[in-house]
Structures are given as C-alpha cells and as structure tokens.
Amino acid sequence: MARPPLSQSSYDEELLQPSLDAAFDVRGFRKPWNPSRLLWVAFFGGPLGAGALYGDNYARLNRPDARLACWIGGLVLALAAALAGAWLFESGALEGADKQRTQMFRWGLQGGCVAIGWFLTRDQAKAFRAFEASGGSAGKLLLPGIVACVLSALVFIGMFVLCVSVLRAAS
Amino acid sequence: MQPDEPSTSPQAAVAAPHLALQRAQHFLEAHRPDLAEHEVTRALVVAPDHPELHFMLGLTHSQRDQHADAGVCFERALELEPEHARALAFLGLTRAEEGRYPEAERLMLEALRVDPTDALVYRLYAQLMQRTGHLDKAERLHRKALQLDPESASGHALLSTIEVERNRLGSAGHHSQRALALEPEQQVAHISAGVHALNSGRPFAARRALREALRIDPSNTELEELWLEADRCCRVVYLPMYYWSLALRRLPGRQFAVWGAMLALFLVAKNFGWSPAIFGSLALFYAAFCIYTWLATPLVKAWIKLRPAR
User: Fold this and answer.
1) Measured between CB atoms, does A16 come within 8 Å of chain B?
2) Backbone angles phi, psi at B100, to 5 degrees
3) Minimum distance, in Å, between the CA of residue A33 and any CA atom of chain B
4) ipTM of the complex in this document
5) What does pTM read for this prediction?
6) b/e map A80-100, b = 16+ CB within 10 Å
7) Residue contact A126–B96, C-beta within 8 A
8) What is the pLDDT of residues B71-93, one digit of tens each?
9) A29, A62 in Cβ contact below 8 A?
10) Which of B97, B137, B148 sits opposite A134 (nearest CB)?
C-alpha cells in the first residue's frame, strides 16, 4: 500500500508544538499529594478544608501563585455558604421535623465542593502524573486530610454562628 | 562461536564497528545489555570517536535504568554528531527520567526537526506525552509513527495501552492483537494484551499474557508487579471488587456518582413512602458492600500469603 506523502501539514505542525511548560519540571516538587484523593477532602471537609489542601498541593507542585488563589477561593466560598445557610436558617427555610431541607443544603454544598474539586484535580493531575512517572512518591494525605476536615468543620460552624448573629443584629 | 556469545578473539577486537553494533543490537533485543556493553566497549577501543558506538553504549545503560550514564553517552554521541536524531531523542528520555520534562520535550522536537521520518522518535515523544498525561497528543503521535512504520509491533502495542487508558477497548484490542500477530515473541506485545485483558474484565487471560511476557524477560520488576496485580484480580475473594472497580472507572465522578445515586434513592424512598423493609435492606446491602470494598485488598493480600501466585 502506498504511503501518504510526508508533507508538513498543519496537523503535523500542531503535533510538533511544545506542550510542556516550566510547570512540568518536577525537580522542584515537594512530595505532592495525589490530586484525586483530595476529592475526599472536598467531600468531607467542605470549601475550607478543600481550599487549604488543594492550595497546599499547588505549592508542592511548585505553583505558588495558584496556591493563594485557591486559599482565597476556598475562604470566599465558605463565607458565601455560611451566609446562605444563615439566611435560610433565619428565614425558617431550614426548619422542619424531618430535617430534610437541612440535609439538602448540606448535600448541595458537598456536591458543589466535589464539583469544583474535580476541576482542580484535573488541573493538578498531569503534573502529578509526570512526577510519579519519574519515580517520585506521593505525600501521605491521611493525617493532613483528617485534620483539615475536622478544623474546617469547626471553623465553618463558627462562621455560620457568626453569620446568624450578624443577620439577627441587622434585622 | 555461537551468535549468543560475546566475541573474544583478537581478530574480533579489531572487527569493524558496524559488526560490533550489529551484535550489540542483537544482545539488546535479547535483553542482555551486559553482553551488548561488552561488544561496544571493545569496539570503542579501536574507534573511540565513533558516534554510533557511544549511542549504542548509552542504550545498554538505558536498558539497565542507568540513566545518568546513558545521558553521558548520548551527549558524547551528539558532540561527535550533533544531528544524530535518535541520540537527541534518547537523551530526551533520560532527561524525562530525571524529571526535566520541558528539556526532554525540547530535545525530542529537535530530533523530529532533524529527521521527521523516524517512527521511533515519534514513539518516544508519544511516550513522553503519555507520562505527562497528554493522552490525546500521545495517541496522535503513535498514529503518526504507525503511518511511517505500519508493521511495528511495539508501535501497535504502545498505542493499545493508550487506548486502554482512554477507555477505547475495541481499538485497544485490535492493536494489541496486531502487535502479537507481528511479533509473537516480543515482550511489549504480550504486556499490551495483558493490560487490555485486565481492563476488559478478563483477569485470567491477563494473568496468562503477563506471565508469558515475564517468561521473555524475568528481570522486569514493573512487569512482575503488574502480573501480581492480575493474579490478585483472579482470586475469588477479590473478584467482586475487581468488577466493581472496572464499572466504577467508567462512571463519571466514580464513587461520588454512586453516592449521588444513593442520595436520589433515599429521596425517592422518603417521598414515595417506600416500605422501610425494602429501603432498609438496600441501605444495609450498600453499607455491607462498602465495608467489603475497604477489606477486599487486605483480605486478598492475606490470601496470597497462604496461596502465593504461580
């Protein structure tokens, strides 16, 4: 069978464009965590825990600029969720003998955190994969994950109570 | 003198470098890098500035995962012949092993600029893209390599592993079968068949294929781990977990999709007044299955200690 001509088509030229920027120099990495495991932190720890650990993982992947954005984003999302929850609580929407609405609010928050976490995981996954392919071993996530989940739950409760107080004072 | 023995006679010591290169290539294909190094080292005494000899010496180091030494050899080959495309590409591979991926890519693109018709260089670049998670580009590079060299068994085998990762099992199976048909004694062809079988719900076929690959080169520790994983999936206590993992891999969101489905079920049960017995049984089964998934791996490891893999 005759082979097609080996002309430099636009397809070939696109194939020969570089795809790896400085973020893929894994020598500067510091035992990053597996980004797909961080989804569990997003599920159990909410926006604060997920924001903290995803941000720290960006630092481990030598991307300190993304770390700050992650922390700020987690804080803003937690504040928004605490405010929304406080407003729903004050308006009576979260009351009910079967607590179903409270559960729906909690599940919605968990689902939203996991959805955002999924995008962050995708963003970190390639660099982490390159790190592992070079023989690097991932950091241990169990203890930091548990600490992040517990602390973020406590802080979130504090934020919720503060928001309820502020709303009551305002009304 | 048998073909599988290194040359030892004084006449062989002054043999043309191309003969040494041929013998070294043969030893490398037989997974005997030590003998290949012996051939090349003797030839280098006679022709110390032969770039191909330095390149071949680098390959013998690469096959033994001595990447620093391999890099030195490839650099020496490039000093003697700066437009040596394969030396550039393999130097890129050693850079990748050191974690210097941007530099590795630069070297491979340089190699392709020097020789845009070398299928092996395309395959090496594709492997670099696969290591860094650029699967779409890796697949396109492999297809380009196969366009240049359609009868390459390793080309088909490597493309098969990428297709498996992208969940295109039909295409993966086609390419792994093609690899086996072209080179039935090539290790990577059996590995690709094993990987395809493992991801297609055929753990016993996977174990057989990977055992065959190990027979060809028993020193490959990564392959041994893959074979042990296939063996674990064949154990009765782990089989449900194996099929569950396969199904979960195809779900977007994986475990979280299951959690969402259970939540939806809970809401339906509550709102439509399901009998507590039915819903309770489902919830209990789900909880028990969750516990089984946590215990499956330690259980099978304990079982393997009692009945080791054969």
Assistant:
1) yes
2) -95, 70
3) 16
4) 0.83
5) 0.85
6) ebbbebbeebeeeebeeeeee
7) no
8) 999 999 999 999 999 999 999 99
9) yes
10) B97
